[in-house]
Design a protein that fits this description.
Length: 370
């Protein structure tokens, strides 16, 4: 089984996609404590490193992973994107921007057989040309594809989330790989919000605020590419044992947490048409027959602890639960997030859709020479 290391691993969207594509996630680096806890719960056999990626060098990373130079198949990761985001200020001097360069520095030092990095479309802005050039200078010996724009719904996820992927490889380890290799599969079926949320509890008690209260029954029906990934496809040595048992034996899922809305807010939400935005909260009502817009992460304590605006459920006058957010991002029901709504949505909003990650990494796995 080929090995990958996940840098800026977050909760594990890329890691799950990699595991489902046939890779072993040998190590994950993440310095957000809550995200690292979530990744550790879901990937108990992975070596977890709580540090800033910039503090590592290639030799130390390989030592941590227990690998010799030349034995690592891939480095994957999603360096912080906030400094490049179209909804942000796109500051050239945002200190987080340098993390994009650090990712490629480590790839160059480790000399993994391939790399895959994810970021927001804003990274391609001309203002960041010099930064991208500096990053790519560390991997000059790789065959580097042009940046690939991926719309998650084209790959089977129920969201319009759009991201840019940077993919490079050492040609001696691969058969032919081109940008077209990563085009959406022809057999992808679009998944709307209604289908994505089917089986989850619709009537959520606003008083369900604790992790224990958030465990609720789920009903499954029908089989499709999406439902198989929502319900199962559990890679070997992945998953929190307790959560897996509750899901498999009791048919329960976590994260069905309520939100207390005043009667006035609930009335406003209930009066909205699908796709309309509440003028106060700025929340948008989901269209059951449409796709979910990009779920945002909000900010950490170092940036003001701003809660991300959550969409409104398409049938009920309330914002969506973390479990519903996970479904809409493409996470399976057995995957557990941080117990609080705030951290759960930060982790979901910061994650690569596992459905997208699996599709892209399957292409790489299928072309990697043993």
């Amino acid at each position: 089984m080929p090995d990958v290391i996940d840098l800026y691993a977050g909760a594990g969207g890329l890691s799950l996609g990699a595991a489902r594509a046939g890779f072993r996630v040998v190590a994950a680096v993440e310095n957000d404590t809550h995200a690292l806890e979530t990744h550790t719960r879901n990937f108990p056999q992975t070596i977890h490193v709580d540090t800033d990626v910039a503090a590592l060098n290639g030799d130390r990373l390989l030592e941590i992973a227990g690998l010799r130079r030349g034995r690592l198949d891939g480095i994957i990761g999603g360096p912080p994107c906030q400094g490049f985001s179209f909804i942000g200020q796109k500051k050239l001097d945002d200190d987080r921007n340098n993390q994009f360069v650090e990712f490629f520095r480590l790839v160059g030092e480790v000399q993994s057989k391939f790399f895959l990095a994810e970021n927001v479309p804003g990274i391609l802005d001309v203002r960041f040309d010099a930064l991208r050039e500096r990053a790519m200078s560390f991997v000059s010996g790789y065959e580097i594809l042009n940046p690939i724009k991926v719309i998650a719904s084209d790959y089977g996820a129920p969201t319009t989330r759009t991201r840019i992927f940077f993919i490079g490889f050492q040609s001696r380890y691969f058969d032919s790989l081109t940008e077209e290799s990563f085009d959406p599969p022809a057999n992808v079926t679009s998944v709307c919000v209604r289908e994505a949320l089917r089986g989850l509890l619709t009537d959520i008690n606003p008083e369900w605020q604790s992790e224990k209260q958030g465990w609720r029954s789920v009903n499954y029906s029908g089989r499709s590419y999406f439902t198989e990934r929502a319900q199962g496809r559990i890679p070997e040595n992945v998953g929190d044992p307790d959560s897996l048992e509750r899901h498999e034996v009791k048919r329960q899922v976590s994260g069905c947490l309520g939100t207390r809305h005043s009667p006035d807010v609930a009335a406003r939400y209930g009066a909205l048409e699908p796709g309309e935005q509440d003028f106060v909260s700025k929340s948008v009502k989901l269209d059951g027959n449409g796709l979910c817009p990009t779920l945002r992460a909000g900010t950490g304590r170092d940036r003001g602890s701003y809660q991300a605006v959550r969409p409104i459920h398409y049938l009920r006058p309330r914002v969506i639960t973390p479990r519903e957010g996970g479904r809409l991002q493409g996470f399976p029901d057995w995957f557990v997030f941080q117990p609080t709504k705030w951290h759960s949505f930060r982790q979901i909003g910061n994650s690569v859709s596992p459905i997208v990650a699996e599709r892209l990494l399957q292409v790489i796995a299928g072309n990697l020479r043993s």
